[in-house]
Amino acid sequence: MAGVETNPLTASVLVYHFSSLDEIKEFAEGRNLFLIEAKPEPSKALPSERISARLKSLDQQIMAITGGRVDGKEAAFSGLLLAAAYQVFKGSVLPSGATLMWYALILMAQKQDGDLRG
To answer: Contact, 15 vs 4, CB < 8 A?
Structure first.
């Protein structure tokens, strides 16, 4: 070992050494200090699939919180409508308020048409 630095703000210890990773792993695990594990395999899901899964989870959470009265699209519609009203109130009618209103209306139209993908 060549030296040690500590940082109480991050509760970390930096050890300068000349050993290999295998030697450090063997030393630490043999003394029950810590485990060095292999990195998990990166997700093979596409970003759109991961986002979709999280949105479905959020939708389920909203449904659970509201007792099934409000779903994710209705919550998004309400949020966009409130954001649009805020933008209009600030005097930013075009494009911010109008754009948010448009998105809210599209969501409502999809809900009324039964186009609830997901």
So the answer is: yes
